[in-house]
Structures are given as structure tokens and as C-alpha cells.
Amino acid sequence: MANLPERGAIDDNSLHIIDDGGVIIEGEKISDIGSFSELNKNISNVKEIEFPSILLPGFIDSHTHVCHYGSRSDEYSKRNSGVSYQQILEEGGGIHNTMNSTSNSTDDQLKQDTLRRLKRHFLDGVLTCEVKSGYAPNLDDEIRMLQIINEIDNKNEIDLIPTCLAAHVTPKSFESSKSYLDSILNELLPKIKEDNLSNRVDIFIEENAFSVSEASTFLDKVKNNFSITAHANQFTSGGVKVGVDNGAVSVDHLEVITDKEINYLSKSETTGVVLPGCSLGLGIPFAPARKLLDNNCKVSIASDWNPGSAPMGDLLIQAALLGSLEKLSNAEVLAGITCRSANALSLEDRGSLEKGKIADMIGFETNNFKDILYNQGKLKPSFICKRGKIYN
Predict the structure, then answer these.
(1) 223 and 75 inside one domain
(2) Which of 224, 271, 277, 318 could form a disulfide with 310 if both were Cys (CB 3.0 to 4.6 A apart)?
(3) What's the predicted TM-score (pTM) here?
(4) What is the pLDDT of residues 176-225, one digit of tens each?
């Protein structure tokens, strides 16, 4: 998983597979990698650790909402009975329900629930995880969420990338979406910057959230001080262009995207993040990952783990199913949850097994790397190395 192209289609022959391989770790980083027999000739005074047959970079989940409290299983049943996600949101449910549950939780309840999800993610091989705020009915609770995400970052094994998604939906306490976005710009973001709570800002561009014009104005004012990303084209078109035009590092969802938008995205440096968990949770078509790759787009795969549209949260299962239904190569799927996910988060120090990169690695008990996706996510890592520390 080294030296793969950042964009476009990849076949399995592009994977650099080292037979009888070895990795030398010094501190938190990979100091060398190659044939074990060759490495063994040139080193001394090292502790040798055996790992399973297949070693990969640790998975990177570039889009999650794991910091929340409460369940929306009742809404899941409603959707399966034919009520749409948008209708539930319009009626005051959906994200608003999670806002209320999260706001009413104690700090300890919110921390423990989030840590429980992250622990499961870690054991499934996710060693870096983006975590969004966005379940807060007011600005004070937004600050609280980001403070808790930052605190948890020091209390769990996964590296967390906090993202401010205050622009998720307009809380009921605000008279208009414009007044809410103005409050984020004038009151919230200066505080986040001052306290170093996040360097990333997200916005949900969609009906019943924020319009294309609102998002364009908002991101134009944000982009000089923060890295930006956007929830785009989940139910309707338009968000991709807003993100690309404002230099977003990624546009995420893309379940509804035109050929014109795909072409526009392909000519940019913005990564398209596809979220199969959302499609599985809502029963809607997957983002057209095959077409995106064939048109030379940058494509990452993430779980979208959240209580409403993507409650499963298993990145490997979702990526494997996406690969099967969208006809993606093993290389495209594995790159989508490692090196290409690192690109979606602007992380240059991880995502591949290379000299100088952080020693984030996972091992699988199989002699054939193709078995990992063949088992559709049920073959889990039996070996985890996070920043040079071994867990097995």
C-alpha cells in the first residue's frame, strides 16, 4: 500500500506486495520496510515481533458522527415503512432528536458512549477517525461537544480529527438559517480558533438544512481560516460545485450526482468521500464510486457512523459491500480506506506502509490479501500496531 495514485482507477496489479516482508519501527514511526531477510542482515539489537500473514496500513475513517447520545431506532422503523428521511427532519425529528438527546446527556454519558464506539472501531482496525460535532441546539453545546472530542482524543487509542459541523441544521431556537450561520461566523468560530478545538469546518448543503447560496456565502467566509469540507449531494445536486469552488478538501456523500458534476470534481483537487453506510441505512443507491474513479476523481470511502442514517458503523463491511456492488478492485477499496482517506483529511504522515510514516498497521490471519474483502468485513484484524505500540 505505497506509491498508489491519488486519483482514478487502480487495478490489483498496482499493489506493491512484499513477500516475506518486515518492518522496522523506531518510536512511533516506520524506519525501514522491505524483505525480512534483507532487513535482518543490516540490523542488530532489535526486539523481533511476529505478525499475521497480511499486514496493511491502519484504516482511516474520514467521515463520522460518533460523538452523540441516544438512539433513533424508532425513526429507522418509520423509514422502513416508507417515511422519508427528509420528511422526518421536516417534521422536527431526525437530527433535532439527536441534538436534544446529546444536549440533555451528562458529560460522562456522552464521553462513555463515544469511547465505546471508538473502542469497537479500533478493534476493527480503524486507527485514525474524523469526528464531527453538530448535535448541539445552541453554540455553547457546540463548544462542549468539541471540547469532549478533544478530551477523548487523549483517552483512546485512535487519533481523532475533530471537525466543527455546527452548520448541520438550524436549531429551533434560531429564527432563521441566516441568523444561525451569522452566529457561527461571528461568535462560534473565533472561539474555536482561539481554543484550538478544530481546524476543520463542515456544512450540510441540502433541503431542510442549508441552501447552495447560503453554503457558498458561509464557506467563502470560512475558507481563509479553516480547512473546509461539505456534506454534498446526498438527496439533491448542487453541493459539489460549492465545495470545489471554495477549495474544500472533500465533498462527502455524492449519492445524487450528475455527469457534469463528476466532470467538475475530476478537474479539482477535492476528494469525493462516498458513504456506503448511509445508503445501507436509508435504503438508497450507493454513490457512483465506479463512475467517479473511471472519470479520474479522487475517491475515499468512509462510514458516516451516526445515529440516524448510518447506525452500523462498520467501515470494512461497508467498503466490502460497496466494492461488490460498484465493481471496485481490491486495490481501489483498500486505498479508499487508507491512503486516499488520508488525503481526504490532508494527512501526509499515514495511510501507507512507508519509511518515515507513522507506524499504524493492522494484520490479518490469511495468506491472501483478497480474502479480506472476500469475507465482506467478517475477517477482522488479529494484530494492531498504533504509533509503534503493539496490541494483540
Answers:
(1) yes
(2) 277
(3) 0.95
(4) 999 999 999 999 999 999 999 999 999 999 988 999 999 999 999 999 99
